[in-house]
Specification:
Helices cover 24% and strands 27% of the residues. It contains 9 helices and 11 strands. Strand 9 and strand 10 form a beta hairpin. It is globular, with a radius of gyration of 17 Å.
């Protein structure tokens, strides 16, 4: 089975090279883009990530403060955020149309609006979920950096039956969701079969240089995981960087396959 794949812009963040490139390009800055990845086919509408918690002011502030540990200019400017319901509306969809939500990172820039998708099954890294609910083993952040308060209340309450914890699983024929680590304990990759062949993407690679130069991201928790994940990530017909603004230059309408 094959699916269509497109990216929808969600937010941006001004980031220095120490975030997106390991020990190099000192002094360079670029805008990292945060996307909604839309997979459609075989009667399913799959949304990968649900965007930053813009309309949860306390949680949005917590998220931005966590990024400003790097530099005061980092963060998600409110004026550059497009909420998921608005991004979906541009392609004729609503949150009610989404049948599955994949969360690639247990961070509120990806989890920020899960509770909007009440018709969707939600897929999250098992290790990432346990890391949050049992206490962040890295000890770096407060829990609301991972899941906004209202989002966690949904997942532990009315949405509990729709929550699926995943290690490495074919969710649908031709659509696999698998753990990478590297960036976060809850980081996951997506493998999707399309008309262009197998496509891989994950937040283990932020920008094209991470893939082309085999140079890991700077914001890395495990180099060992990068060395393990990189060959698997590259084993595809098309491999996409997760936060590169140039995706919208290479695919101006967001349609990848």
């Amino acid at each position: 089975m094959t699916y269509s794949l497109r990216v929808l812009y969600g937010a941006r963040q001004k980031s220095p090279s120490c975030v997106w490139y390991y020990i190099g390009k000192i002094g360079e800055w670029r805008d990292l883009y945060f996307y909604y990845w839309l997979i459609q086919g075989n009667g399913h509408v799959v949304l990968v990530d649900t965007g930053v918690p813009l309309n949860k002011p306390e949680d949005f502030d917590i998220l931005n403060r966590s990024h400003q540990y790097v530099h005061k200019d980092c963060g998600h400017p409110r004026e550059y955020v497009i909420e998921p319901q608005d991004a979906l509306a541009k392609v004729g969809l609503t949150p009610a149309d989404v049948t599955k939500v994949f969360i690639t990172s247990t961070s509120s820039y990806a989890t920020g609006n899960i509770e909007l998708f009440t018709n969707a099954d939600v897929y999250v890294s098992r290790l990432g979920w346990e890391n949050v609910t049992k206490g962040d083993t890295m000890g770096l952040y407060e829990n609301r950096v991972f899941f906004p308060k209202a989002t966690m209340a949904y997942l532990q309450g009315p949405g509990k039956a729709k929550l699926h914890l995943v290690d490495d699983e074919e969710i649908l024929p031709g659509l696999r969701f698998w753990w990478t680590g590297v960036h976060h304990r809850g980081s996951m990759a997506v493998t999707v079969q399309t008309a262009k062949g197998k496509v891989n993407f994950a937040d283990a690679a932020f920008v094209y240089e991470n893939l082309q130069e085999k140079r890991p991201i700077g914001c890395i928790e495990s180099m060992e995981e990068w060395n393990t994940v990189y060959p698997r990530l590259m084993d595809a017909d098309l491999v996409l960087p997760f936060h590169d603004s140039r995706l919208l230059e290479n695919y101006p309408d967001g349609v990848i396959a």
